[in-house]
Amino acid sequence: MPVRSLIISLSFASVPHAGRSAGQGSRRGGLGKQLSRQSLLTRVSFCVQRTARVTLFVLLMLLAFPARLLGQTGGVLLPEAPSGFVGSSSAPSGFVGGTASDVSDGGIWSGILDGMNLNTSLTTTYNSNVAPNQGITISNTAKDDYIFTLGGNLNYLSQGSGFTFGGNYRGTYNQYLNHTDYSGYGQGAGLVANYEGGRFTVSASMGFDVDQGVNTNYASNFVEQTSWRSALTIRYLLSPKTSLQGDFRQNSTSVSTGTYSDTSSYSFGATALWKYSPLTEFGPGIRYTCTSGSTQNSLISIGPTMNLNYQLSTKVALKSGFGMNFSSYENGGSADPTFSASIGLNYVASQLWGMNFSLYRDTQADTYTTGSFSELTSFRLGYHRKVRRAIVNLGVGYTTRTYLDSGNALTVNRPDQNQLNIDTSIEMPVFSNTCIASIFCRYNEQTGTYGVSGGAWSSVQTGFKISRKF
User: Fold this and answer.
1) Within 13 Å and on the Cβ side, how many CA atoms surround 214?
2) Which of 164, 179, 246, 268 is deepest in the core (most CB within 10 A)?
3) How confident is the model at residue 68 (pLDDT cuts 50, 70, 90)?
4) pTM to 2 decimals?
5) Rounded-to-integer distance, Cα 217 and Cα 260, Å
């Protein structure tokens, strides 16, 4: 591949070492000052070339490969907007780390390539309500169904210090026993790259997902959604206590069924961070955001932000950002100011238990109503506890969607859309620690659903899952 060849040549191209040029010059009498000047120019040239190679490499990674940000051990990531899918057949997990799957390390794949893992799973789920919206056409009038899911996940993360990269691919196939029209594939793929050198830290990612199921973003209809996302963060250390950070985020979604609106958003941010202590940093910033849809005028926002990060080894990790958005529509109309927030918090009390919390709030283009926007607020609290060889997970989440006054008569006096999720699971290693078995149960309840009789529905999913790590 031409692009990969270019990346490899940029990553490993040899550059004359400045110290070697200076050493040769010291042996030549009478030219010390001239060679000293040449040595300085050589060092400057080396730094410029190295920075250019790294920057170009990251840009090529963004353009050439799909990527999804991988989890980071001992850290925390800012949450993203919820996908809207409910009733997933996979076992829920109330905690991002320390699960029972950690007891079984890689097998043949780790022997072939360090950092590579392959996971397979088989899940059986009973769903009490696979079709909450009465308006959709289904082949069977019964709402409940059994779902059989076969899944796999292949991921790789390089072992290194200055530069690391990785990729992953996941695939699932869902077979419905009665509603066979809903059976189908889901998949996602991605790549991530991180670089730390000198004063620079660069992280880049890009990814896509194709999933199907009941989605609250589309009036609780059954849809197949394709989403793309990319991110780039560059951080420069000005001094031991001060750093500058710039970031770019992009997200777009579309569905292959119905007449729903495709949506997209992108944002640019700049932040100045001050290290208050070895554990805490905070600072102000500014963010520009453009949110649009195929049936909406773009909503353009700009406003100040405040960021706070806290890291205590692997025990406590906090990452947060808050902002005020002053917005206007593409056609010249004005919009009321809105508040945005993003919080990710992990707390690992001991090897026996831990908790995590996430909060997301921002403005989105509505997929169901032409020309409308909504303000989405979503939070989730998770807890895990190790009991002998098993791990118990508990989780609760709540999402509310408030429709903004965008001059659309369809959204005037429209009630808020609220969704409650409660889930629990118990998992433990089986078959000589080669597999993980889990049972799970999830409850979903939603009110204010547009297009649903009575505006409310609920569902329960319960099932069994067994997975194997190779």
Assistant:
1) 27
2) 179
3) very low
4) 0.75
5) 10
Backbone angles phi, psi at 346, to 5 degrees: -120, 135
- What pLDDT is stored for residue 260 in this prediction? 84
Distant-in-sequence, close-in-space partners of 374: CB < 8 Å, separation ≥ 6: 363, 364, 366, 401, 402, 403, 404, 417
Residues 450-470 have a mean pLDDT of 81
pLDDT per residue over 82-105, tens digit each?
777 765 544 444 333 333 333 333
For tokens 């022997």, the residue is 111
Of residues 287, 292, 280, 316, the one with CA closest to residue 304:
287
Query: Bridge-partner residues for 452, per DSSP?
Result: none
- What is the mean predicted confidence (pLDDT) over 43-69? 41
The residues that bridge with 253 in the sheet, in sequence order, are: 227, 263
Which residue's structure tokens are 């190295």? 50
Reference 358, options 376, 346, 350, 348; nearest CA is 346
CA atoms within 13 A on the CB side of 179: 23
| Contact in structure between 230 and 206 (CB atoms under 8 Å) | yes
Beta-bridge partner residues of 367: none
Contact 144, 130 (CB under 8 A): yes
Q: What is the pLDDT of residues 354-377, one digit of tens each?
A: 999 999 999 988 887 777 888 999
What pLDDT, on a 0 to 100 scale, did the predictor assign at position 153? Answer: 94
Asked whether the predicted pLDDT for residue 58 surpasses 60, the reply is: no
Residues 6 or more apart from 303 whose CB is under 8 A from it? 286, 287, 323, 324, 325, 326, 337
Q: Is the pLDDT of residue 160 over 50?
A: yes
**Residues 227, 207: Cα–Cα separation, whole Å:** 8
CB 270 within 8 A of CB 286: yes
pLDDT for position 304:
97
